[in-house]
Task: structure prediction
Amino acid sequence: MSKPLEGIKIIDFTHVQAGPACTQLLAWFGADVIKVERPGAGDVTRSQLRDIPGVDALYFTMLNSNKRSLTLDTKKPEGKEILTKLIKESDVLVENFGPGALDRMGFTWEHIKEMNPGMIVASVKGFSDGHHYEDLKVYENVAQCAGGAASTTGFDDGPPTVSAAALGDSNTGMHLAIGILTALRARDTTGKGQKVAVSMQDSVLNLCRVKLRDQQRLDRVGYLEEYPQYPHGSFSDVVPRGGNAGGGGQPGWVLKCKGWETDPNAYIYFTIQGHAWAPICKAIGKEEWIDDPAYMTAGARQDKIFAIFGTIEEWLKDKTKFEAVDILRKFDIPCSPVLTMKEIANDPSLRASGTIAEVQHKERGTYLTVGSPIKFSDMKVEITGSPLLGEHTDEVLEGLGYSSQQIAALHEQNVV
Ligand code: CAO
Result:
């Protein structure tokens, strides 16, 4: 079966997580992604957080599947010549170097456009062009702090807190992938490429949209009724950290289940959906609350919401998180067990759907990765192992017309 992005050639000049997550996604969907790496070392994640000495780390293998690897020193003249040839016959160049690195290498947007007017150059930077922090190098948690996530995450009495989810890295990569596909679609009609830029700060903020909503509501009315600070605590003039509050129109919280004293993840997330009040009362054996004016409306429940959560925890005391969800799902209550990574890794449904995929790697044997979260009716996304450093160097050079003698000389000079 042919893949929708087959025929699209991508120069993958990315490293660490934000850029590689983007190009990996495009490779899954059929693009020919050639990862360009520095000879000898390659992407720094090959050797970071290694669990097997001398073998590519999971950090690398889980972000670079379905790609080819070309080693190339793009600071040497011969390396620049090879990159130039590649640019002339490719559709997209993706990079996430520190600010100005590509320009310093001699590959400015203007120069690339001249060489290949159809080329799409896609970049991740920490901050957007023209931002007063545009010169900063940025990693995940820096972006979470700059994008408003950290100040609004955590508990009221604790410090700003970063999320385990890669809001700055992989999330930015996903935004970039959407930008690239949009530019490819535009090129279909105009024939012209363009520069696509995504900043990590902007991508985090895009996911914190509801917090900017809350800032404006707070400015106007002075309180936010869905936060745990309401109605008994106090508000300052900035959106506070909301702990585990539902955050939208439905109150919710993380509730203890059987075994929480020894198992730090024996919890469920429980949501009190307004129209599900009667089923909730039935599920937890509090039918008298259904028509009680002190409980029957969301407004009436607001000032005692934590007492209500306390009553639900009483009900949960003799049920594991899985047993509790199995009961609550019958009452159509939005809830989930708090799952550990170990439980997720072994989840039969996630294995069956391909969301957790077991992949073969030439040196490490099999490893688990997160497969495509996007499912298609007409395409099965197959994940192949990440390439070894320079595995496809000769093959790519041959494709560019280099003879075996020329290739040998390039190896000799450490250009590739
Ligand atoms: N051949 C020759 N030189 C190469 C090369 C190659 N194949 N690949 C990279 N280089 C060079 C670059 O040209 C650059 O050289 P100069 O600084 O001398 O011009 C140098 O390697 C370092 O690049 P860098 O600035 O990207 O690397 P760093 O380790 O100092 O910074 C990071 C890493 C991530 C902080 C920075 O790249 C960055 O801010 N990127 C943008 C934001 C981003 O994507 N962050 C996400 C990180 S986690 O996903």
In short: The mean pLDDT is 97. The chain is about 35% helix and 15% strand.
